[in-house]
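Quarterly update from the structural biology core.
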Amino acid sequence: MEMKKRINLELRNRAPEKVTELVLDNCRSSNGEIEGLNDSFKELEFLSMANVELTSLAKLPTLSKLRKLELSDNIISGGLEVLAERCPNLTYLNLSGNKIKDLGTVEALQNLKNLKSLDLFNCEITNLEDYRDSIFELLQQITYLDGFDQEDNEAPDSEDDDDEGDEDDDDEDEDEAGPPGEYEDEDDEDDGGSDLGEGEEEEEVGLSYLMKEEIQVNGGVKGCRKQPTGSFE
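Predicted structure, tokenized:
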């Protein structure tokens, strides 16, 4: 699918100025150029154009709010100075799998003052001696190169952060529910609350016995009503 058609499809009848994320991966660019994008995408914060056979960024529009730009697996070999001119607030840039060979090409990224993460994995420049040290010295504003900082600590993954948040939610649910058996004792107390004392039990038994005798007498049934003297009628 051509890039222009893909953009129209991704818009889903929305106005360009309402779009904050746009993914155009695996579509076809015309002559290696960006087409269909213009300055009306002024609210765009995330743009992905991976594997679209780009050779040039010359037609990249001004996207002042763009924070993340994915350009992996293209054929870009230079012209990176346009990024600082038109996307000055970039914090994340992925150029992995392109044709970037030397430090002079990357030097154009020095003007991206907010850039924190740069990915050049699988580019020829990674074969240079002291590649990592040279990039960190050249681009002192970045914190992560190819997913790791200067001390080889891995960049945090936003998905992992979400998982930790879910675990915290589970812990909160457990706290709200209370430990198992918390309410069992209360139920036991309720059941036992109706227990009668020893004297009350004896009185109830006596009443029950007299009631049975009264029923037998009133009903005309000759019973063996117990007399205080122990004799029978």
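The CA atoms of residues 161 and 216 lie 80 Å apart.
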